[in-house]
Design brief:
Blueprint (H helix, E strand, L loop, with lengths): L4 E2 L7 E3 L4 E2 L2 E2 L5 E4 L7 H10 L3 E4 L3 H6 L11 E3 L12 H5 L6 H14 L4 H16 L4 E4 L6 H12 L4 H9 L7 H16 L5 H8 L3 H15 L2 H9 L3 H11 L2
Helix pairs in contact: 4-9, 4-10, 5-12, 6-7, 8-9, 10-11
Protein name: Tyrosine-protein phosphatase
Family: Belongs to the protein-tyrosine phosphatase family.
InterPro entries: Prot-tyrosine_phosphatase-like, Tyr/Ser_Pase_IphP-type, Tyr_Pase_AS
Length: about 260
């Protein structure tokens, strides 16, 4: 799994989420990329991104996140950047930052993150962002990059939805989601987030709680999946009713992404 990961200095969790066996073949490699934000990218990082030849970037962050940490771009960058205006998690905060409010321990952090995932598939601006994402994958050629702030929660949900719609085995769906916990320089990413979270909420938050907030857990994705299935019966029905990804759009995704 770690062969999927591109290690950069200032871009965390950058990796290929293609290549998995799917319902009618295998997802293409080298065209589906995911990551965290690029606001701290170094010149070498940007040169590495440029080598991929991105044609589309889908930014799942909210307006406040884009304003406070604009992404740096490679020289001659000409990819189309897509995003929905507004706050994709219902506030100006990333999910892990939102979940840090009022908690101190790892157990409290996990409970807060799990609660957050129950409603994540239905947050209005994120729904519009996800619709842009699936439309782009179904209609645009070339490599794409999907990202949010940390590249783990909103991005993780979006990637899991695509995988499931294309028939990727559930073991691989979860393995790709959990790869966040070992991708890249975890210590640097967690330390930076810890400083930010404690500055916002106070020093009572333990180190273990910070690690929990900055990681992912199978229970989080299970919570989102249960919420989807309880309301709509299946991911396919959710995608059609909420994201406008009908059978024709799923076929377009299959044609472009599966070999």
């Amino acid at each position: 799994m770690n062969e999927r990961v591109r290690t950069f200095e200032g871009i965390h969790n950058f990796r290929d989420y293609g290549g998995y066996a799917a319902r009618d073949g295998r997802l293409r490699s080298g065209i589906l990329w995911r990551s965290g934000q690029h606001g701290a990218a170094t010149p070498d990082d940007l040169a590495g991104v440029a080598q991929i030849g991105l044609s589309t970037v889908i930014d799942l962050r909210g307006d406040s996140e884009r304003q406070s940490m604009p992404c740096l771009r490679p020289e001659l960058f000409d990819a189309v950047v897509l995003f929905a205006a507004g706050e994709t998690v219902g506030s100006e905060l990333a999910p892990h930052e939102e979940a840090g409010r009022g908690i101190a321990t790892a157990a409290e952090a996990k409970e807060a993150m799990t609660r957050l995932y129950v409603n994540m598939p239905y947050r209005e601006v994120l729904v519009r962002s996800l619709s842009l994402y699936f439309d782009a994958l179904a209609t645009r050629e070339g490599p794409s990059l999907l990202h949010c702030l940390a590249g783990k929660d909103r991005t993780g949900l979006a990637a899991a939805l695509l995988h499931r719609l294309l028939g990727v085995h559930e073991d691989d769906v979860m393995a790709d989601y959990l790869l966040t916990n070992v991708a890249g320089n975890q210590a640097r990413r967690i330390a930076a987030a810890g400083d930010s979270i404690r500055e916002r909420y106070g020093d009572q938050i333990t180190d273990d709680a910070i690690v929990t907030l900055m990681g992912v857990d199978a229970d989080y994705l299970h919570a989102a999946t249960r919420s989807i299935e309880e309301r709509h019966g299946s991911v396919e029905q959710y995608a059609e009713a909420v994201l406008s990804v009908d059978a024709a759009r799923r076929e377009a995704l299959r044609q472009r992404l599966i070999e």
